[in-house]
Amino acid sequence: MNRMPLPLDFYELQKRQKIRSLAVVTLLFLFYLAAIGLLMLAGWMTFGFFAGRAGFFGPGFWFKFLLTDLLFAAGIAAIHYLDARKNGAAYLLKRLGAQAPDPPTGTIWSSPIRSRRSGSRPASPGSKP
Fold this sequence. Notes:
single chain, mainly alpha
């Protein structure tokens, strides 16, 4: 099996991930389009049967049907996409039990002032852990 080479940098990785994300959203949209279309068609056929009129060949029926189906599918796909963008990373981190990485030494986040604010004391050079 031919595997893709590892990405060279962060930006190449982000580009690949964006393409994959758009592919997943497109597949979800197509699934919602088909599922909602079938449900609407089944419901319309059921209630149309009891109402006594077929109406499939009426003026503008298919245009209205497809437009309604498209709007519902796009709305649901947009809601799922926005929810994944807002809560997806936090959900995955929680499910994996991940923690924030240790800050690199020599940065503002590892300074003694920051340590005192959080209640812990910085270790002196000669002390043992």
